[in-house]
Amino acid sequence: MHFKRLRLPFAVVVILLTGCGVAVTPAPTQSSATTARPPSMRTQAATLGPVELTVFAAASLTEAFSELGEQFEAGHPGVTVVFNFAGSNQLAEQVNQGAPADVFASANTAQMQAAIDGGRIASGAHQTFVRNRLVVIYAKDNPASLATLPDLAKPGVKVVFAAKEVPVGQYALGFLDKAAQDAAYGAAFKEGVLANVVSYEENVKAVLIKVLLGEADAGIVYTSDITRDNADQVGRIDIPDALNSIATYPIAALDDSAHPDLAQAFVDLVLSSEGQDVLERHGFIKAAR
Hints:
- The structure is a single chain.
- Helix 2 links the parallel strand 3 (about 50-60) and strand 4.
- Helices cover about 35% and strands about 20% of the residues.
- Strands 3, 4, 5, 6, 7, 8, 9, 10, 11 and 12 form a ten-stranded mixed β-sheet that branches. A two-stranded parallel sheet has the order 1-2.
- It folds into two domains: about 5-130 and about 250-285, D-Maltodextrin-Binding Protein, domain 2 (3-Layer(aba) Sandwich); about 130-245, 3-Layer(aba) Sandwich (D-Maltodextrin-Binding Protein, domain 2), CATH 3.40.190.10.
- The protein is built from nine helices and twelve strands.
- It is an alpha/beta fold.
- Residues about 1-45 have low confidence and may be disordered.
């Protein structure tokens, strides 16, 4: 797993991952450009010089947006997409502090609203582009012998959550609140799980890594965080619909983007059928349209 051309000008580095550059694809011929690119990728295909488009995106979007970034660059010679992947709360704070950015994609509407309230995104400009849901993961060797949700409350089980300020952390706490009202689980289940939480992490990828490294027996992440690269390293316990939370992801171009046409073109790619297919392939739920 890696970040593509990761730049964190204002962010606290939350995951130690190796960044690598991707070469800009040479401009295709006129005929291939017309036939190979979806409409959303033809806009601004020719640029006057090297351009960096900065996209702030929730950490859970790392793999999917990295792939979309490569597609965007292929359709826009001379453009490099620079990603800042972090917790949505951190990203919204950076936006409101004036960090240079062209596009913001959040893992919940609350942090998008925070950016709107900060004055850099117009009210009503954001669009829901994808959805996600929670899942419990555990280390493949399963040292705690986890099999069902009630096992998370067994004494001695080491559980890791994202911090409550992070969307997935809020959703996880919402799951416990719903379970506490369910006779099959009850308040004791919520109390037992919270007593087992050994750390609250800064984003969902940090939760995943803690479990992968064996520093926790279980954690709550998004279903999209179980990827081809790690699926054989974790087990999963599904959370039933009645207790689950469906995460809503909004996206918007910033009003003060230095490259407004390109920023909107990236948003359009994410919303396009091509973009939605990429997101679905990475485990997200397509936005209903």
